[in-house]
Amino acid sequence: MKHLVRVFSPFHASGGLSRVLPVLLLSFVPVGVIAQVPPPLPVMPIPTARQLEWQQQELIMFVHFTVNTFTDREWGDGKEDPQIFNPTELDVRQWVDVAAEIGFKTIILTAKHHDGFCLWPSKYTDHSVKSSPWLKGKGDVVGFLADACRERGIKMGLYLSPWDRHESSYGDELRYNLYYLGQLRELLTQYGPVSEVWFDGAKGRDAKDMSYHFDKYWALVRQLQPGAVMFSDAGPDVRWIGNEKGIAGSTCWSMMDRSRVSIGMADTSYLNTGDPEGLDWVPGETDVSIRPGWFWHPNEEPKSLAELIEIYFNSVGRNSVLLLNLPPDRRGLIPEEDVARLREFRKTLDQIFAEDLAAGKVASASNTRGSASLYAPAMVLDGDSQTFWSTDDGLTQGWLEVDLGETRTFNVSRIEEPIALGQRCKQYRVDAHVGGKWQTLVSGTTIGYRRLDRFDTVSARYVRLVIEDSRACPTISGFSLYRKN
User: Fold this and answer.
1) For 98-233, where are the E strands, in sequence order?
2) Domain at 50-352: CATH code
């Protein structure tokens, strides 16, 4: 038997490493192949291990819940009486059960919104659950959620608003930033692992002129929760997609220049598309609420199934992660109509992606890296995201052809790049052989972690993915075809 070694793994995630290492580890192949066919070099920048793990989640659940739920407001003014916070049936396990059923991998909770009311008994203020009648002041929403998430294997993230309309030290830059760091330390040390820490630069027109010390906030997160990704307009790990409509850019690079972005005053079009020349890997997170508002309001209804499916294709399907907000009502429960809509959403997605018509079929290509089986077209159809087809160096174009074995009918494609090697594709199209000639079904720009395209229903046996332009030699880890009814 020939000796076998691992040839390429673009990262190593053990031990809390935060940097991606281009070490030679991925799939077992004969030793002799290594010297003959080296793997493609990464195209910088590349993601860290924590960023790769984050991207693979696809769906994250946001939970906006505070005194605003009881006042029918979106932004509280900080003058609310804690006595109004009294959810009669609060059950965080219901939230977690919904997340697990629908496929959310993380729940991010608004531990403190702009009103300053804390959902945990902070030692730094009495404006919190400890001053409310809920559980006679002994409750801790953050703690209860952390326990429930651990029980179900769901990760927990936290949002701590820098803008605090209740805290008297707000406006005194040094005092308030120390206050904020104290609360952040509480959240990062008392509740176990935190997978994402969510920051924004929100300030109302009445906010006192003061700077937030984001560099200090980020340093504390790195110190206390090194595995967590951090979100803001400028990252450092994950960026805002530039709108709250659930729409990532049709061109969506995971790269940007963080130095060009000011939190709270960012160029939203830049955030939406990213930057092919960007020096930093900061993928986009697409945030949107299932209802018109971020908090529960009695006169609002959840989005339609069609709207949710459109959001999915325009977020997860455009190299982003979908952060979908599900606001609990005054009982402390996600409303029944929202849960029902989510179940329709999950069922529809499962139906669309139930059968990959290209899986395991025969594939050929315009060029294969070193003519080696390690990078053969078949690697794109094997269902393994860590194997891939690649061309020789120096090529920035190429095509991959799939023989479906018989004429099949489809209207959805899924394309994936092995992003641990960097994001490469600048222009692509999908063609089908129809009526004796090749017909373009859809064309696009970026691919990244995942690209989902919908097009007019077509019946064909032969399909081509054509990479028209790429930052370096093309690498494709997945190509799938589906039929959406």
Assistant:
1) 106-112, 155-160, 196-198, 229-232
2) 3.20.20.80
> CB of 108 within 8 A of CB of 157?
yes
What does the pLDDT look like over 339-349, one tens digit per residue? 999 999 999 99
The pLDDT, as a whole number, for residue 203 is 85
Q: Is residue 390 within 8 Å of residue 473, measured between CB atoms?
A: yes
Structural contact between residues 251 and 445, judged by C-beta atoms closer than 8 angstroms: yes
CATH architecture for segment(s) 362-482: Sandwich (2.60)
Residues of CATH 2.60.120.260 domain(s) within the chain? 362-482
What is the per-residue pLDDT for 7? 34
SS3 379: helix
pLDDT digits (tens, 9 = 90+) for 101-146: 999 999 999 999 999 999 999 999 999 999 999 999 999 999 999 9
Cis peptide upstream of residue 418 (ω within 30 degrees of 0):
no
User: Is the separation of the CB atoms in 388 and 418 below 8 Å?
Assistant: yes
Cα→Cα distances 36→3, 25, 29, 98, 475, Å: 16, 16, 12, 50, 18
For 138-142, 261-265, 294-298, which range has the lowest pLDDT when averaged over its residues?
261-265
Contacting residues for 299 by C-beta, under 8 A, at least 6 apart: none
Whole-angstrom distance, CA of residue 352 vs CA of residue 221: 39
Q: 256 falls in which pLDDT band (50, 70, 90)? A: very high
Instruction: Provide the token pair at 421.
Output: 């090697």
Which candidate, 193, 190, 213, places its Cα nearest to that of 201? 213
C-alpha dihedral sign at 356, 449, 419, 17 = negative
Q: pLDDT tens digit string along 438-457?
A: 999 999 999 999 999 999 99
> Is residue 163 within 8 Å of 202, Cβ to Cβ?
yes
Q: Which residue's structure tokens are 């030699």?
A: 473
| 223 pLDDT above the threshold of 90 | yes
236: preceding bond cis by omega (within 30 degrees): yes
What are the percentages of helix, strand and coil residues in the chain, rounded to 5? Answer: 25, 25, 50
Q: Write phi, then psi, for 145 (nearest 5 degrees).
A: -70, -40
**307 SS3 class:** helix
What pLDDT was estimated at residue 10? 38
CATH 3.20.20.80, the chain: domain bounds: 50-352
Which alpha helices (H) appear in 82-139, and where do they start and end?
92-102
Residue carrying structure tokens 């952040």: 184
Average pLDDT of the chain is 93
Q: Taking a C-beta distance cutoff of 8 angstroms, is the pair 288, 244 a contact? A: yes
